[in-house]
Here is the input.
Amino acid sequence: MKVAITSQGKTLESKVDTRFGRAGWFVVIDTNTGDYNAVSNEQNLNAKQGAGIQAAEQVSRQEVSALITGNCGPKAFRTLMAAGIKVYYGTEGTVAEVLEQFHNGTLSEASDANVDSHWV
Amino acid sequence: MALNLTIAVASGKGGTGKTTVSANLACAAIEAGHNAAYLDCDVEEPNGHLFLKPRISHIYPVGIPVPVVNEEKCTKCGACGEICQYSAIVKISKTVLTFDNMCHGCGGCSLVCPAGAITEKERPIGVIEEGDAGGVSFIHGRLNIGEAMSPPLIKAVRKAGLHGNLTIVDVPPGTSCPVIAAVRGVDYVLLVTEPTPFGLNDLGLALDMLRELGIPGAVVINRSDPEYNHLAHDFCRERGVQILAEIPDERRVAEAYSVGELAYYAVPGYRKIMQQLLTSVEREAIG
Ligand code: SF4
Ligand code: SF4
Here is the structure.
């Protein structure tokens, strides 16, 4: 399966970005092969509204099954659910560390948005 | 010649006395024999009614058209989401999501949908209330609590008030989209300001906006103060804008305000200033 993790940079050593809609990058990892690539979220950074929705669309285009991020607003969450993407909240450390937590099952699946819409 | 003039009363920030000036100017217009209308476009916090005390005779809802997608007709082509500037509609995976409270009602998505899958429904954003206030046609909008989309309601208030031959538009404070919706197409704008450095800074921003929109206007100094007045005069001279009235900081005006009375009838000196202001505006606006 493929997993997207919001990140401040382009590699597995980058720190995770707690923001979703206005995250710097999405690092997309194929958990079967360990391959990864980074997708820039630059065009959303300055969006006046709907950054979370656009980010969800962006992530969905990568055909991921799960997203790991720090904060997710209600509109982004609804969009991710519609795309069949599971959301996990993980905020500490590097992309590699969060991926590790995901594999160990220490991150639990989110059932709802965790911030108000103005956050996204 | 019958007059047909729309004058907006605006200010760069709240609390400058904009509503007091516009409501009292409406009284002066009635006394001068005009068929006057007062339009409160400050739809988030309308307060002109506190002073004009209208008898409301007509209330009706205002909404904006938002898209409804017929999933069966929809081919999931994604064109709707691509055209929408506001992310209010998005094709995601095998479905199309809409976010009604982000939609500006532009109609773009239904226009581009190749499958004819999008129809529109009305989403209520507020109401318009109309009535009579001692001879003044009174119209204001009230935006629903928590609603962010005020410009369509402001436009509806403007449209509802087309029948007066002297229309006074009470504009929301600031220089953003709602302000532009309220002043678009008016003949003349009065910018109400206090003569303090803070007040003048906001006045400058409001002047920039008017220049950009190409609408002529002048300044009204409210709560004029001997300590600061020269600043206001210097500022207006530099910016090449006229001062049409200076309203002294009188206790009786503030008292009238605090009990919801019109200074026009309660304070003789104030009435005089408003009459002169009306005459000056007519002269300037008609040219
Ligand atoms: S009507 Fe305009 S703003 Fe609303 S969803 Fe369609 S394209 Fe977007
Ligand atoms: S444009 Fe029409 S057909 Fe295409 S995804 Fe949107 S609603 Fe469906």
Observations:
- Residues 79 and 113 of chain B are 6 Å apart (CA to CA).
- The interface with chain A takes residues 81, 86-88, 90-93, 95, 97, 99, 102 of chain B (CB under 8 Å).
- Residues B 69, 74-80, 91, 96, 113, 115, 117-118 surround iron/sulfur cluster (ligand 2) (CB under 6 Å).
- Chain B has two domains: 5-35+165-286, 64-123.
